[in-house]
Amino acid sequence: MIRRFSERASVFANNWILKSSASRFHGESLDSSVSPVLIPGVHVFHCQDAVGIVAKLSDCIAAKGGNILGYDVFVPENKNVFYSRSEFIFDPVKWPRNQVDKDFQNIAKTFGAMNSVVRVPSIDPKYKIALLLSKQDHCLVEMLHKWQDGKLPVDITCVISNHERASNTHIMRFLERHGIPYHYVSTTKENKREDEILELVKETDFLVLARYMQILSGNFLKGYGKDVINIHHGLLPSFKGGNPAKQAFDAGVKLIGATSHFVTEELDSGPIIEQMVESVSHRDNLRSFVQKSEDLEKKCLTKAIKSYCELRVLPYGTNKTVVF
Amino acid sequence: MIRRVSTNSCLSATAFGSFMKWSFNSSKFHGESLDSSVSPLLVPGVHVFHCPDVVGIVAKLSDCIAAKGGNILGYDVFVPENKNVFYSRSEFIFDPVKWPRRQMGEDFQTIAQKFNAMSSVVRVPSLDPKYKIALLLSKQDHCLVEMLHKWQDGKLPVDITCVISNHERAPNTHIMRFLQRHGISYHYLPTTDQNKIEEEILELVKDTDFLVLARYMQLLSGNFLKGYGKDVINIHHGLLPSFKGRSPAKQAFDAGVKLIGATTHFVTEELDSGPIIEQMVERVSHRDNLRSFVQKSEDLEKKCLMKAIKSYCELRVLPYGTQKTVVF
């Protein structure tokens, strides 16, 4: 799952480009004639717990003139694992991008890390994602609009759906305007056409299922090998499967919710990333249950994807996540 | 289930009529009077009504109150879409000289008959006896302690007739000393797999108005529920329908959820499945261990149970369909 991140990061290091238009911080410099431009970086680390990890990581950053602005460490009780996430600014002249990778990689080897990922948002390419959906498109629309507003820091490579959409619909015109291909891949009970989907998404960094109502098989997940994030408009583990808003309405609950989670072979059961709730009462009918669920869905999915892109989400045990 | 409330109140209303007393210590409102020499003391009342929907119910109910000089201060009406039922809850103040308590019961009863009401309950908190409840628990007593303290502070408007538990407690424990100080009897009724001693429990609780299960870990059978005939409220420290049964906090911890909650609901034969009255949540994260999951669950439990019981005593909770509640 998230393991694959580290492989991606090394590919980034070989292809980095300096983008002068990206956000910079100005800081002090020994050479007083030119102020260096400092840029932000994020590093997450996941390894077996030992004495001295933070010392080594922080020293690595300081030695190259980097300044740590935020640091989260989490070591769970009785479990011999260590998680950290650091935010720092650095001068890419003093600490070149591929050197950043090498330096953290050394520390990763020293501690036998399960995961060590560094990301420099202004230099590294954005995450490439594909969005999958079926008939309901409010989640997709939300994501496309947030992406257009610059609030979703990804590159959308394509949209895949098992429903056909007419070319004069809002979504199709939007995608055409932005040069994002739409692939209609119809599925049947016998044929989920997973090979074709795999072919379409193999260059992506992760997938987002935004009301994609087909179950992806274990073979697909293994074949893809990277993370798949799903949004479920129910408060898992309640109301798995289809129509969770209606299930909730029939159950007479007083709180409804949405859950984003990583996809596993089992339906609606993977590690949970984010959950949100809202109150409902007898005054809510099925329509308002559905409406509230959809509003929650959109917020919850956007938040989860943002967290994921900011390297805040890490695997924890077999079925949980650390979300810094 | 909640249907029973109306039967009881009808009986009680007659009983109240026979025994009504003036309580000068209760809260009263002063209002105008035709006789200017003495200001009447106005007393708050609550009426809930549940019947098949037709034109004219609100008119009749409000007229009934106004005709006796009562002043409606709050009114909630709910008629669900596509369902031919009507719910209302009114709060009003009235002069018990102009509108005697027993007459009030009869007046509302007349309207109830006219509209074939499933439920018509009136309650005058300052005149009517408090609800009598029995509390059942097993080993975990934080919910009971919370309820006892809130009751002592006057925040739980009930009479606690007794506490029943399948765990024994030593006399020098906080709970036992508290109960003794307040003259509330504690009954230790151990259960086994074969014998849930439901008859003994029924005997002890038959005069109560409703039961509260505050971490009572035995399943009450359908026979018990039928035999008791009145409402039983349970608190479950999980967000139903997730995590039914035992150790919901641990189930939630293992499931890696980011929100945990508590649910109060009416008890039915099926475990943790009756109509939900109230739910509350709190956020959890990777930084929470099992201990803090449990602690947060317990804090939520106490708040959620208190809120539900308060709502119930204020006649805010009504049955809705087979599996839901209206909570005004």
Which structural category fits the helices and strands of chain A? alpha/beta
> Which series of helices and strands of chain A comes N to C?
HEEHEEHEEHEHEHEHEHEEHEE
**Biggest protein-protein interface?**
A-B, 34 and 33 residues
Mean pLDDT of chain A: 90
Overall body shape of chain A: globular
CATH topology of the largest domain in chain A: Rossmann fold
Strand content of chain A: 25-35%
Q: Over the alpha carbons, how many angstroms does the gyration radius of chain A reach?
A: 21 Å
As a percent range, the share of helical residues of chain A equals: 25-40%
Number of strands of chain A: 14
Distance between the termini of chain A: 18 Å
Domain count of chain A: the total is 2
CATH superfamily of the largest domain in chain A: Formyl transferase, N-terminal domain
Q: Low-confidence segments of chain A, ≥5 residues, pLDDT <50?
A: 1-24
- The strand order across the widest sheet of chain A is 8-7-6-9-10-11-12
Query: In terms of quaternary structure, what is this?
Result: homodimer
- Please count the helical segments of chain A: 9
Give the name of the CATH architecture of the largest domain in chain A. Answer: 3-Layer(aba) Sandwich
CATH class value of the largest domain in chain A: Alpha Beta
Please describe the biggest sheet of chain A, giving its number of strands, its sense, and whether it closes into a barrel: 7 strands, mixed
GO molecular function (chain A): formyltetrahydrofolate deformylase activity
Keywords (chain A): Hydrolase, One-carbon metabolism
Domain Formyl transferase N-terminal (chain A): 128-305
Protein name (chain A): Formyl transferase N-terminal domain-containing protein
